[in-house]
Write the structure tokens for this entry.
Amino acid sequence: MYRLGVLLSGRGSNFKNILNSIKSGFIKNAEIVVVISNKADANGLNIAKENKIDAYFIDPNGKNREDYDKEVVAKLKDYRVDFVILAGYMRILSSYFIRSFENRILNIHPALLPSFKGLHAQMQALKKGVKFAGATVHFVTEELDDGPIIVQSIVPVFDNDDEESLSARILKTEHKIYPLAVKLLCEDKLLVENGRVKIKNAEVPDENFFITNPLIGGEDGI
Ligand code: GRF
């Protein structure tokens, strides 16, 4: 059984979805043992408590990045965490943190990386006028929103979209691909070779896959 630690800063909908995917049996072989937030009022902390998962606010005030991360890493180690799941965690990790959990940290970003890294990714996509947007789950490396890509989803961008409507469309797919990535991770199916993630024993899809794939679709397809 793999032990997961979740870091978040806000709403917590991705965390909740991963939790539900464990409860439903979609993700096997994993349990969320601890949730940590850098924000005292993060709704994700409430979700954890409602579900009887240990949850901590660790106050970043007055600490430099590395000292703060040392506290967070210590807490994760107390709980013997195998994998760290970033779910809307709005802090850049120090190299101390990344080295402590090398190749064992996952993040989700609301864009088709490597495009639109950083904050307000959906707005960046709108401003560029792209016709497709999406989300990416990736392993975390020292570079922000970089690292080997595990799963991506695609959604169309419509002429009348604003940041809110596009974010909502992307979020629906985030809730599919993050549990999928965690499932593959916990089934030991992810192989990283030269910065590229391969899925062990994955069937090679034919072109119809891209038409029928539920992770790619329009308003009704997602
Ligand atoms: C998501 O859009 C995620 O891609 C980004 O932060 C947001 C977190 O949302 N990293 P939630 O807290 O999981 O609802």
User: Anything to note?
Assistant: The domain at 1-102 is CATH 3.40.50.170 (Rossmann fold). The two ends are 31 Å apart (CA to CA). Strands lie at 2-8, 30-37, 54-57, 83-86, 105-109, 132-139, 149-156, 190-193, 196-199.
